[in-house]
Amino acid sequence: MFIINCPYCGERDQTEFTCHGEAHIARPDKPSEISDEEWGKYLFFRENPKGTHFERWTHDHGCRRWFNVMRDTVTDQIIKTYKMGEAKPVISNE
Amino acid sequence: MSNQNRTIYGGKVNREKPINFVFNGKSYIGYQGDTLASALLANDVHLIGRSFKYHRARGILTAGSEEPNAIVQLGLGARTEPNIRATEVELYEGLEASSQNCWPSVNFDIGAMNNFLSRIFPAGFYYKTFKWPPSMWLFYEHFIRKAAGLGQSPTAKNPDRYEQKFYYTDITIVGGGISGLLAALGAGRSGCKVLLIDENPELGGYLLDYNFSINEKDGKKWLKKIIDELNGLANVVILKRTTAMGYYDYNYLTALEKVTNHHVEFSSTLPRERYWRIRSKKVILAQGAFERPLVFADNDRPGIMMASAGQKYLSRYGVLPGKSVVLFTNNDHAYLTAFEFVEKGAKVTVVDTRDLLNARISEKCKSLNITVFKSYSVIKTYGDKKVNRIEIQQVDKNQNQLTGEVENIHTDCVLMSGGWNPAVQLFSQSRGKLKYDLKINTFVPDKIIENQKIIGSNNGQFNLQENLNESFEAGIAAANELNFNSVEKVNWTGKEEIEFTHSDVEPYMLGKKKVTKGSKHFIDFQNDVTAADIFLAQREGYISVEHTKRYTTTGMGTDQGKTSNVNALALMSHIHNKPVDEIGHTTFRPPYAPQTIGAIAGRSVDKLFDPERKTSMHEWHVENKAVFEDVGQWKRPYYFPQKKEDIHQAVKRECLAVRNSLGILDASTLGKIDLQGPDAAKFLNMIYTNAWSKLEIGSCRYGLMCNEHGMIFDDGVTSRLGENHYHMTTTTGGAARVMSWLEEFLQTEWLDMKVFCTSVTEQWAVLSISGPNSREFLKDLTNIDLSKENFPFMKFREGEVCGVKARVFRISFTGELSYEVNVTARYGRYVWEKFMEHGKKYNITPYGTETMHVLRAEKGFIIVGQDTDGSVTPSDMNMDWIVSKKKEDFLGKRSFTRPDTARHDRKKFVGLLVNDKKTILPEGSHIVEKALKQPPMKMLGHVTSSYYSPTLGYPIALAMLKDGFNKMGEQVVVPLMNGKIIEATVTDTIFYDKEGKRNNE
Q1: Which residues are CB-contacts of B447 (< 8 A; sequence separation ≥ 6)?
Q2: pLDDT tier at B397, thresholds 50, 70, 90
Q3: What pLDDT, on the 0 to 100 scale, is given for residue B706?
Q4: How confident is the model at residue B149 (pLDDT cuts 50, 70, 90)?
Q5: Which of B237, B657, B828, B933 has the fewest Cβ atoms within 10 Å of its own Cβ atom?
Q6: Measured between CA atoms, how close is A49 to chain B, in angstroms?
Q7: What is the C-alpha separation between B751 and B973, in angstroms, rounded?
Q8: For the CA atoms of chain A, what is the radius of gyration?
């Protein structure tokens, strides 16, 4: 069970949060102008990396805010949490 | 004769305080300080139960939480507990326990014939034998479960209370033996917050049972001083009788504290158990090690126990489990127990698998008259309900076989020691990696993942002297790493008469002698897994350690193989002639020991299991005999029976009242969301499929929400209250989901939109009045102009109703002239009662959800989640009219043109009328192309809603039917579970008032 550092509230227990899968998948600006394939990618295709993963979480039983989490899927270490709209952190190779 | 095996002096039991207890219906006396196991041994009771599969006589193997054999049914009635380790139960007045898995009694057990039939019961027997035909398994299983069994669960409701505690600390130390105590002292003196957990009633662990010295003085006194100092430290919390059960990510631990369980009969004030959920910055594991059994034929008889257990029964409880004792060992340390037994009056013979013996030990054996058979092994034991004779034979180490004459020794107790296994369960749960240590022949911790230390024998380090100083320093270091000041190190000199040695420890003793089917070299005592079973699994191809485990069930008992795992792996290594490291080990998972569900549930039982949500009119419904229905957490009136009405009669009466005069529904549970902000209209345009920009203030509009896949996921009416102010309603069950959906898009996609969403579901009580008389009725109670011209359908007005400020919405879910009166929740009941009083002249009739469902179905109004199931588009529901063609974008729109969504032969929403005009189709029934005698039949769709319509006088149904819009007027067949085949005609979905005149009145 993780401890998650909510960017608005600080460290809280995982039970207060919900994970919503991969982050940084922007909704296409003009859905009507893109192909079925591109729309399908937005709807269905997700990364499943062994290692660093970016995902969306909400602090449901807290501030109810959405934010992003950078997590290592192997060690479950949470490398960083950051607010929506902030740039995707760079993965270091160390 | 009572306590015949009790020594005259010695041990920590209080011989002045006798305690009465009952085992298998017979009364015994033990002493304060005894466990059930020690008290039984003291009274010469060795036969405790029957084994899982072969019903073999079993006694007491260990003296701790690893016990596989001595598991009993403890307590009576609602408090009874199965599979309780007698070695852990502290004796209390009135304790009652009994043997498990035996009938009619443990002494004469019919099931014991399984033992003689064991040649036909090898590993995998059940899988192979009861496989065919597949449908019979459920029948076989019933008998198998009965025959191979553990204890009985209580059938009555648990009368006890269980508590939960959430706890945050700097350092948690698991294990209160010498390593844990010293680590706690080091960390405690440094000033950080320490939690020390130990499963025993007394701190001290291993050292409580053995003699040792510190700085050349009596070690026990020193130990007491250490514990006294810890007890005096305010920053150190000590939990005794508490077992750490689970070790999860980020140093989250769970632990079960036996507040009264297993040491007090029960308490009216204290909880039975307390479940701790611990979050710790650092964890120090100091759980120690388990002694490993030796594997030889019939090594499971009562009277055969671990050497360390013998030591504990003798030194702690003053119980001499046998007078003529054999110690079977492969290491030096176990000799301490032999010496102790001689000192207390037993005759001891040692069988040692090694040929070279430490000179000091040899000498001492000679002086104590202990015969030592060097390079010998026990090869067989005898004795029906207790061991009485063993056979030994010489071991040729080089040839790895048994040679020479078989010799007989008469004995009443065999103590065995095959070395020690660190208790790596929690370490492994924390994803720490193990490695095989060739010096002590067992798995030891290797790579640590969590912020954690592992010390002492738990880390494979058995030397007292080294453990003393290193454990204390580990405590200091841990505190230091958390930025607490260092404290001075101390140098203790600790000594045991015989130190643990790292040499000559091997996990099993079989030699080359062929292990035949039916021979009983037990590896896993609790699950009756023998060495032959492990051989068999390898022969049959279950070679992976995970396969061997599941095929033989080794390590799968309630003890989770604490005594058996390493022996099983070592045997596999022997069979495959591969190092144990390459065999690997199975995964350890929580819980570490069996635990009660009650403790996990804590106070979340009965009324507190799940919150109940009640409307402000709820008590009125109760007083007026409503039958309730659960809708999510809400309690909603289902129907209001009068006198002896059944549901059908009540619903019929309620429906007709609404159609003919006036009905009233408590609609307070509808989800309500208050939307405010300059971008609210723009936002609604994206959320709903229809257009919202032109909705006037004071108007209401029905809306449908789709997800991005284009599937309907909620609906409701939203009204414009002001320039930038909207009142949204959702389905009762969907309220929270919709709220999250709105927040998601506002927070993740459209961060620039200025809209605030607030849930106001519970702030408003909603009284929905419906029926041709509703205008006449409401007119007298409000200052709002209700005239058709000034307050038409789909409008909203504010004013007073019964003197209370109200929002009134002219919307309808019944198809009748309706008003939804919203008042502040606390006036809900007041206004309801006024309505009931004033409505008498219109025969106002309260109705529940069932009538609501019937009335809306007569009108073909959908219920999201009943008529739709998450795979249905607005077009499928014949609701294209609500999908804007003009809007460039809204959630789900793009998916409507995906090839699969646009397919014309999708299931479509239609009405069904049964041809016999009387059968009410069960909801969920399948519509098939052609009814056959049995499945498979080609399915065309299914019934989503089905009722008897009191208004029409015949049944109506709604259904999803393949290409349904092109099948109007066609015949379909619906086969029922009872074999009947019902014919029906496809119709549109509106059965009553097709023009929609009535709600426009």
Answers
A1: B432, B433
A2: confident
A3: 97
A4: low
A5: B933
A6: 20
A7: 52
A8: 15
Q: Per-residue pLDDT tens for B783-806?
A: 999 999 999 999 999 999 999 999
3-class DSSP state of B552? helix
pTM of the model: 0.89
> Is the N-terminal amide bond of B637 cis, ω within 30° of 0?
no
Q: Which of A14, A27, A35, A59 to substitute to test the interface with B, most B CBs within 10 Å?
A: A27
* Beta-carbon pairs below 8 A across chains A and B: 52
The C-alpha torsion from B679 through B684 and B687 to B689, rounded to 10°, is -140
Name the CATH code of domain B162-289+422-496 (choices 3.30.1360.40, 3.50.50.60, 3.30.930.10, 3.40.190.10): 3.50.50.60
Q: Are B510 and B531 in contact (CB under 8 A)?
A: yes
CB A71 within 8 Å of CB A55 = yes
Does the interface ipTM go beyond 0.95? Answer: yes
CA distance B895 to chain A (A): 8
Residues in chain A predicted with pLDDT less than 50, given as ranges, are: none
Closest Cβ–Cβ partner in B250, B747, B894 for A31: B894
Nearest 5°: phi and psi at A74? -85, -50
Q: Which residue has the tokens 């609790």?
A: B526
pLDDT at B888: 93
Domains contained in chain A, CATH given: 3-83 (3.30.2270.10)
Q: Which residues contact B835 (CB under 8 A, 6 or more apart)?
A: B664, B767, B769, B777, B781, B802, B844
At B111 the pLDDT is: 73
| Nearest-angstrom CA–CA distance, B429 and B674 | 47
Burial (0-12, 13-18, 19+ Cβ within 10 Å), B246: buried
Give span(s): CATH 3.50.50.60, chain B.
162-289+422-496, 294-417
Q: Are B662 and B839 in contact (CB under 8 A)?
A: yes
Partner residues linked to B758 by β-bridges: B674
Distance from CA of B892 to the nearest CA of A (A): 10
Tokens coding B727: 């009142």
The architecture that CATH gives domain B294-417 is 3-Layer(bba) Sandwich (3.50)
Q: Is the Cβ of B895 closer than 8 Å to some Cβ of chain A? A: yes
Euclidean distance between CA atoms B167 and B176, whole angstroms = 19
A30/B747 CB distance under 8 A: no
Q: How confident is the model at residue B100 (pLDDT cuts 50, 70, 90)?
A: confident
Instruction: Give the orientation angle of helix B565-576 with respect to helix B531-539, to 10 degrees.
Output: 50
* Any A CB within 8 A of B516 CB: no
Q: Quick one: CATH architecture of B905-1001? A: Beta Barrel (2.40)
Q: Which residues contact B76 (CB under 8 A, 6 or more apart)?
A: B96
